[in-house]
């Protein structure tokens, strides 16, 4: 028999991090997210140079860029469920050790065969598979360990690592690209990830915890926590579907811009400095992400309804950001393009304090699983969206079609969330039909 509701809440509160623990883990996970994106955006930053070396056209470059998402979409649900089951921090550490190694080994894999596109595609699929568990496991971890009143700021702070990692790779990666070639970008990002894994293993996790996690992953050993997912109850709720569609739209729009913006600037403004367009948008996005989390928690503490705040964040993250994305396709000025790109990327970080936290509002006990479902939808759309963008650009000869696609996808998610989004915890008790 399960303990009554108040007893379960007391147990959950006891399991939450103390303030020093929360600060230590927030900083560590911020760095982990940063390194995840360093590895992820190595390919977009190096795509032009690799295309020149290997003779790829836009369609082939689109295959290489989108291949990451082929693997990324396959492990989202598993990552979230494992995070709910064995602890998100353990899932994150085990996957990071593998994706760090694969990233560092990517340049070496291209020497295994003359079929360079096949080798790079295989490497990126593996990287996507391994990174796919990260954000669902992170969502599970924060929903269990962070107080509800601090959740938006914590999530947005950790989420800022995605912009910080893209910024670091854009700045340092551009220099490495010019000085040592594209191979050095993969070596450095993969190597730094492995160093982070060593730090977390030594200072923040016990060996016994990792052994248990590996046992569950390899042998499927049972653990004490009830891990059944209430599928039927979850997917009968319109608010759950609203969160899934909104997360799908946010992820897909972000993936398209992340993958193609470096190439857009490189080809549209060939005389421009790579460090400018690879750095400035992400430099803007970091304080924007932190501000969105602070603003969200502050408004809720001032008495505004939680769902009102979540929807406001989505208006900024999906609505206003897509307006600036559209502007990118209708200007010939480099400085205006950098401004529009910075505004669009910066405003997209408001999604961290909107739908990403809304998933934790709805079902904290299985937030990792639910986020995995939503992000799988986004990753699948990313596969299609990134590849389709390359096809549209190649066939139309214009970048406007790509930005129109981003705006259309964003509008779908925003309208769905505004109509059906809620913030109350959903009732997951079995209905009479399920008994």
From TrEMBL:
SUPFAM superfamilies: MFS general substrate transporter. InterPro entries: MFS (IPR011701), MFS_dom (IPR020846), MFS_Na/Anion_cotransporter (IPR050382), MFS_trans_sf (IPR036259), SLC17A9-like (IPR044777), Sugar_transporter_CS (IPR005829). Pfam families: MFS_1. GO terms for molecular function: purine nucleotide uniporter activity. It is a multi-pass membrane protein. It catalyses: ATP(in) = ATP(out); ADP(in) = ADP(out); GTP(in) = GTP(out). The keyword Membrane applies. GO terms for cellular component: chromaffin granule membrane; lysosomal membrane. Its main location: membrane. It is found in: Cytoplasmic vesicle, Secretory vesicle, Chromaffin granule membrane; Lysosome membrane. The keyword Hydrolase does not apply. The chain crosses the membrane at residues 91-110, 117-135, 155-177, 184-204, 239-260, 280-300, 312-331, 369-393, 399-420. Keywords: Cytoplasmic vesicle, Lysosome, Membrane, Transmembrane, Transmembrane helix, Transport. Residues 25-425 form the Major facilitator superfamily (MFS) profile domain. GO terms for biological process: ATP export; purine-containing compound transmembrane transport. Gene3D superfamilies: MFS general substrate transporter like domains. Voltage-gated ATP nucleotide uniporter that can also transport the purine nucleotides ADP and GTP. Uses the membrane potential as the driving force to control ATP accumulation in lysosomes and secretory vesicles. By controlling ATP storage in lysosomes, regulates ATP-dependent proteins of these organelles. Also indirectly regulates the exocytosis of ATP through its import into lysosomes in astrocytes and secretory vesicles such as adrenal chromaffin granules, mucin granules and synaptic vesicles. Belongs to the major facilitator superfamily. Sodium/anion cotransporter family. PANTHER family: SOLUTE CARRIER FAMILY 17, VOLTAGE-GATED PURINE NUCLEOTIDE UNIPORTER SLC17A9. This is Voltage-gated purine nucleotide uniporter SLC17A9. It comes from Rousettus aegyptiacus. The lineage of its organism: Eukaryota, Metazoa, Chordata, Craniata, Vertebrata.
């Amino acid at each position: 028999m399960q303990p009554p509701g108040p007893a379960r809440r007391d147990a959950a509160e006891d399991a939450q991090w103390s303030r020093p623990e929360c600060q230590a883990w927030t900083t560590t996970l911020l760095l982990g997210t940063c390194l995840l994106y360093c590895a992820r955006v190595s390919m977009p930053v190096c795509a032009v140079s690799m295309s020149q070396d290997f003779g790829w056209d836009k369609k082939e470059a689109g295959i290489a860029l989108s291949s990451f998402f082929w693997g990324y979409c396959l492990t989202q649900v598993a990552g979230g469920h494992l995070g709910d089951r064995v602890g998100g921090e353990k899932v994150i550490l085990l996957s990071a050790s593998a994706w760090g190694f694969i990233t560092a080994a990517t340049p070496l894999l291209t020497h295994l065969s003359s079929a360079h596109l096949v080798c790079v595609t295989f490497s990126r699929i593996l990287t996507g598979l391994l990174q796919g568990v990260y954000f669902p496991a992170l969502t599970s971890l924060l929903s269990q360990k962070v107080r509800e009143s601090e959740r938006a700021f914590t999530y947005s702070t950790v989420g800022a690592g995605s912009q910080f990692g893209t910024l670091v790779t854009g700045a340092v990666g551009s220099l490495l690209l010019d000085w040592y070639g594209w191979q050095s970008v993969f070596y450095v990002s993969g190597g730094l990830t492995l160093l982070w894994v060593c730090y977390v293993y030594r200072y923040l996790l016990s060996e016994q915890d990792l052994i248990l996690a590996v046992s569950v992953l390899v042998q499927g050993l049972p653990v004490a926590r009830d891990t059944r997912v209430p599928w039927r109850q979850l997917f009968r709720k319109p608010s759950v579907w609203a969160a899934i569609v909104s997360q799908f739209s946010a992820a897909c729009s972000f993936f398209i811009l992340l993958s193609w913006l470096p190439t857009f600037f490189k080809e549209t403004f060939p005389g421009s400095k790579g460090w400018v367009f690879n750095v400035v948008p992400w430099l803007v996005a970091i304080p924007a992400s932190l501000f969105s989390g602070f603003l969200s928690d502050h408004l809720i503490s001032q008495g505004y309804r939680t769902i009102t705040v979540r929807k406001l964040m989505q208006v900024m993250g999906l609505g206003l950001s897509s307006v600036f994305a559209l502007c990118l396709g209708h200007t010939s000025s480099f400085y205006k393009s950098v401004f529009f790109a910075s505004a669009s990327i910066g405003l997209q970080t408001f999604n961290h304090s909107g739908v990403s936290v809304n998933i934790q509002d709805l079902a904290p006990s299985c937030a990792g699983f639910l986020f995995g479902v939503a992000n799988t939808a986004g990753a699948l759309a990313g596969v299609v969206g990134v590849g389709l963008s390359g096809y549209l650009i190649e066939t139309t000869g214009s970048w406007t079609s790509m930005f129109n696609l981003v705006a259309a996808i964003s509008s779908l998610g925003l309208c769905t969330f505004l109509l059906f989004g809620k913030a109350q915890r959903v009732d997951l008790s079995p209905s009479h039909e399920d008994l």
